[in-house]
């Protein structure tokens, strides 16, 4: 409890009237008027526990902060004597049902009651609390990633475009920054921000930052990947050049479902500058991936962002109930991609992702001869328009998770057939010639910051009647595919000033680590 401090909100700065803030000096404590958090305890359900008590001695000159560690007794008879059930010390993410584990989960949790107790209780009334109960370093969303000396640095521009190394990397906050750093060839080996060592010399608590890859960029912009990733290349001043300066760093952090960081890797881009260069532009990036999971690209958080792909997927087969969606290979809605030859038979397999907010149209030409069969031709054109596996559902939000069934919108399919009067004894051949996709979306949530939400998707397939051609004759027909986005948001009433509503969708990791 001596290390717990709920009022410590600023990084490497003293919070006013926060008597437990380790960043405050005695001079700053003397300016406090009160302690905003006088008592800090752990679990209030324990029968006996340590409590950190903070107060101010205003009679001293100057005033001083007083810290005491006392034993606190819970007067309730219903209290916890010992926390020996380690699984209760943190929250486990629930196991999502799949086709492989459904029978096991049904037998375990499908009854009227089930037991959550471990296989064996080792109750020792004299045993203290587990030593690792408070030793686990778990992060909450947005918390600065701590290192041995301070925090993980992600340089970024603050007021101007010049790099500031005081920007901490936030947990689960993917960032990408670019800034300018002043350089000098004569002193390049002494500038910390240009050296690899500056970005990997601090361990993230118990995890060392490893070098994932090193790319060397020449003066003409050509990049070469080095084979040895564990080679530390420091800046070197040679004649009128400075070699091995850091042009870019990309961090990749792996974490567990309890918020603990298990791995940290950094990929570097090193370059060379000449004596004429007075500054150099650096780029920095950080991304997070949960262990034992496959990262799924998002198209917004939560609402869609214009220009990002529309996410799509399929409904699982053989499920007793709907629990998750199996995304396609690229997790995107796609249409026919136009090619230079404009040949439909050669364009099969070429797909372009549907980007949110972008109306798109593409097409090709089909050359029909007298010897072509109707059914194979129709199936080929259908594969050209829809692709090999056209999705069944579209994510309503850019961050919709696979297990959130209500966040997925089914695609409605319509069929328009061209009717022509002909000889009833002559068989007609219907071939698909156009696929039109209409995406209806609306502004959702707060009026201050509305989020784009897809509410309906309609795919209309148009077919045309193909007459039998005489021998030796050819015919060219156009085949088109299009996407239209329609905003169906209700317009605000004139003269009506609406308050921001609370009917919003939060980011999926807003309550992390809680579900």
TrEMBL record:
<keyword id="KW-0732">Signal</keyword>
<dbReference type="InterPro" id="IPR057724">
    <property type="entry name" value="TCTN1-3_N"/>
</dbReference>
<keyword id="KW-0325">Glycoprotein</keyword>
<comment type="subunit">
    <text>Part of the tectonic-like complex (also named B9 complex).</text>
</comment>
<dbReference type="GO" id="GO:0060271">
    <property type="term" value="P:cilium assembly"/>
</dbReference>
<feature type="signal peptide">
    <location>
        <begin position="1"/>
        <end position="16"/>
    </location>
</feature>
<feature type="region of interest" description="Disordered">
    <location>
        <begin position="119"/>
        <end position="138"/>
    </location>
</feature>
<feature type="domain" description="Tectonic-1-3 N-terminal">
    <location>
        <begin position="2"/>
        <end position="102"/>
    </location>
</feature>
<dbReference type="Pfam" id="PF07773">
    <property type="entry name" value="TCTN_DUF1619"/>
</dbReference>
<dbReference type="InterPro" id="IPR040354">
    <property type="entry name" value="TCTN1-3"/>
</dbReference>
<protein>
    <submittedName>
        <fullName>TECT1 protein</fullName>
    </submittedName>
</protein>
<keyword id="KW-0970">Cilium biogenesis/degradation</keyword>
<dbReference type="GO" id="GO:0036038">
    <property type="term" value="C:MKS complex"/>
</dbReference>
<feature type="domain" description="Tectonic-1-3">
    <location>
        <begin position="138"/>
        <end position="290"/>
    </location>
</feature>
<dbReference type="Pfam" id="PF25752">
    <property type="entry name" value="DUF1619_N"/>
</dbReference>
<feature type="domain" description="Tectonic-1-3">
    <location>
        <begin position="300"/>
        <end position="487"/>
    </location>
</feature>
<comment type="similarity">
    <text>Belongs to the tectonic family.</text>
</comment>
<dbReference type="InterPro" id="IPR011677">
    <property type="entry name" value="TCTN1-3_dom"/>
</dbReference>
<dbReference type="GO" id="GO:1904491">
    <property type="term" value="P:protein localization to ciliary transition zone"/>
</dbReference>
């Amino acid at each position: 409890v001596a290390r717990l401090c709920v009022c410590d909100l600023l990084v490497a700065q003293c919070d006013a009237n926060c008597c437990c803030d380790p960043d405050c000096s005695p001079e700053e404590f003397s300016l406090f008027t009160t302690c905003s958090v006088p008592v800090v305890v752990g679990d209030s359900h324990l029968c006996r526990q340590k409590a950190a008590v903070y107060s101010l001695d205003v009679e001293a000159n100057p005033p001083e902060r007083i810290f005491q560690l006392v034993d606190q007794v819970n007067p309730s008879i219903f209290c916890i004597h010992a926390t020996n059930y380690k699984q209760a010390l943190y929250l486990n993410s629930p196991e999502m049902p799949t086709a492989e584990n459904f029978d096991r989960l049904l037998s375990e949790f499908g009854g009227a009651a089930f037991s959550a107790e471990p296989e064996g209780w080792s109750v020792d009334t004299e045993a203290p609390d587990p030593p690792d109960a408070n030793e686990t370093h778990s992060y909450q969303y947005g918390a600065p990633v701590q290192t041995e000396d301070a925090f993980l640095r992600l340089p970024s521009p603050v007021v101007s475009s010049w790099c500031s190394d005081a920007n901490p990397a936030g947990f689960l906050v993917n960032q990408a920054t670019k800034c300018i750093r002043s350089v000098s060839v004569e002193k390049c080996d002494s500038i910390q921000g240009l050296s690899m060592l500056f970005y990997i010399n601090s361990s993230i608590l118990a995890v060392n930052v490893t070098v994932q890859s090193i790319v060397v960029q020449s003066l003409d912009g050509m990049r070469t990947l080095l084979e040895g990733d564990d080679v530390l290349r420091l800046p070197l001043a040679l004649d009128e050049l400075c070699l091995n300066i850091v042009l870019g760093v990309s961090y990749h952090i792996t974490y567990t479902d309890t918020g603990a960081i298990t791995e940290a890797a950094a990929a570097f881009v090193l370059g060379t500058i000449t004596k004429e260069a007075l500054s150099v532009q650096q780029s920095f990036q950080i991304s997070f991936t949960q262990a034992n999971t496959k990262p799924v690209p998002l198209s917004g958080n939560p609402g869609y962002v214009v220009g990002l792909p529309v996410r799509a997927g399929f409904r699982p087969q053989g499920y007793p109930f709907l629990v998750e969606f199996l995304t396609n290979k690229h997790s995107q809605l796609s249409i026919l991609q136009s090619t230079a030859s404009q040949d439909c038979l050669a364009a099969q397999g070429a797909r372009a992702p549907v980007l949110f907010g972008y109306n798109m149209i593409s097409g090709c030409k089909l050359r029909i001869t007298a010897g072509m069969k109707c059914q194979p031709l129709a199936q080929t054109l259908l594969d050209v328009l829809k692709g090999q596996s056209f999705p069944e559902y579209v994510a309503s939000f850019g961050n919709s998770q696979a297990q959130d069934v209500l966040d997925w919108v089914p695609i409605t399919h319509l069929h328009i057939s061209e009717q022509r009067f002909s000889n009833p004894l002559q068989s007609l051949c219907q071939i698909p010639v156009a696929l039109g996709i209409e995406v209806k979306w609306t502004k959702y949530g707060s009026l201050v910051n509305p989020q784009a939400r897809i509410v309906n998707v309609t795919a209309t397939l148009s077919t045309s009647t193909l007459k039998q051609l005489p021998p030796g004759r050819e015919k060219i027909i156009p085949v088109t595919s299009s996407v239209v986005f329609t905003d169906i948001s209700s317009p605000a009433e004139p003269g009506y000033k609406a308050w921001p509503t609370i009917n919003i969708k939060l980011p999926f990791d807003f309550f992390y680590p809680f579900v």
